[in-house]
Write a structure and sequence with these properties.
Distance between the termini: 57 Å
Helix content: over 70%
Structural class: mainly alpha
Largest sheet: none
Order of helices and strands: HHHHHHHHHHHHHHHH
Strand content: under 5%
């Protein structure tokens, strides 16, 4: 007779945790391969409606793929030319900015010392070292060829994904024998991610355009570079809207004066408030149904796992994980915890169990002890 092994809940939890740690470790090791593939998948999700629209208009598959490849290549080339040109100009003008920045840092250190913070005159230049900025610029320019090669690899992967996309539904049915419920869940997930990525791309483009107009009107140098940075960082949840304004504000500070830098800060805050907190939520609705805490934790986790690309794709990746957790009744509680806030009336919730007050608890314990002693005395 064969005996079936049964594991206790703690044993199953340990096994699941160990398996999860092993999978995460392997993903971390395979990050150089997985990162461009994930980026290609989400770019393919964005351009899929364009492919479907051209196919409905009678454009052949290869013609539609050629149009998409041409558009993506042109957009990527434009971004690369503008970024590298701006970085070259920034490197040439850097000595002037560095002199002005060191003067401002010394003035800030003197102000802090007058307020009462000792040794600020020596600490501020060390904390705000412009030489680190120059090292970063040189590193980005030296890695331009590697970024170009990675972009071509991602573009090629996007083309293959779009080529295989029409037959993916039949393959999933044959491989996993999907039920109607699971198929509907997958379709809904892809539709929500598609909508999120499209709206996020449009709002990011709008943010970048508004930033460029703001900085161009004021006369801040390299406005196109800061606009591209705003477009990219708008994909990063929670911290992206704050980080995008730091380089432009510092540039305004070293190029002009403090009132202009404050005006740039107010302009960034207005743009992020109008687009990020006004237009985007109304257009997107509930988004992907992820709690704010889960978004912040996912930003840290995916950023650690896949670097900058993981930070860009933190929200859709977390949405996919929540959908996987929701597919099983054993992991559905985790999906509920990571999901959006559940609005329930307090009257609908069961009443919480109330503990006895400390005095009442002590009185009950003393009464029980006295009763025990009395029984013991009677027995003797």
């Amino acid at each position: 007779m064969q005996s079936q092994l049964e594991f206790t809940p703690p044993a199953r939890a340990i096994m699941v945790a160990g398996s999860l740690a092993l999978v995460i470790g392997l993903m971390k090791l395979a990050a150089p391969i997985l990162t461009p593939l994930l980026l290609a998948v989400f770019i393919a999700v964005i351009v899929t409606p364009g492919l479907v629209w051209m196919r409905r208009k009678g454009v052949p598959k290869w013609g539609a793929l050629a149009v998409i490849a041409f558009v993506l290549l042109d957009v990527g080339s434009l971004f690369a030319l503008v970024t590298t040109g701006a970085l070259e100009g920034f490197r040439e003008s850097f000595p002037t900015y560095q002199e002005r920045f060191m003067l401002l840092s010394q003035e800030l250190g003197g102000l802090l010392e007058r307020v009462g913070l000792d040794h600020s005159q020596e600490a501020i230049p060390d904390l705000m070292d412009p030489g680190k900025v120059m090292v970063l610029v040189r590193l980005m320019l030296s890695n331009a060829s590697g970024v170009l090669a990675m972009g071509l690899l991602v573009l090629l992967a996007v083309m293959f994904i779009l080529l295989e996309a029409p037959g993916m539904r039949a393959k999933l049915h044959a491989a996993f024998n999907l039920t109607a419920e699971n198929e509907a869940r997958i379709t809904q997930l892809f539709a929500r991610i598609n909508r999120y990525m499209q709206i996020k791309t449009l709002t990011s483009a709008g943010t970048g355009a508004c930033v460029w107009v703001l900085l161009w009107l004021i006369g801040i140098d390299f406005a196109a570079l800061w606009a591209i940075l705003a477009f990219l960082l708008n994909f990063v949840p929670v911290v992206g809207n704050v980080v995008m304004m730091i380089p432009a504000v510092l540039m305004a500070l070293v190029q002009t004066d403090i009132p202009t830098a404050l005006f740039v800060t107010v302009g960034y805050l207005a743009i992020n408030t109008i687009i990020g907190n006004g237009i985007e939520p109304k257009v997107m609705g509930r988004g992907l149904g992820i709690s704010t805490l889960a978004v912040f934790i996912s930003l840290l986790f995916w950023g650690w796992l896949f670097g900058l690309v993981g930070m860009f794709l933190a929200v859709p990746l977390t949405a996919a994980v929540i959908a996987l957790l929701d597919a099983s009744p054993h992991t559905r509680p985790l999906a509920i915890l990571l999901g959006p806030e559940i609005k329930v009336d307090d009257e609908a919730l069961p009443p919480a169990a109330e503990l006895p007050a400390p005095d009442a608890a002590n009185a009950s314990a003393a009464a029980a002890l006295s009763a025990g002693k009395g029984d013991g005395g009677a027995a003797d």
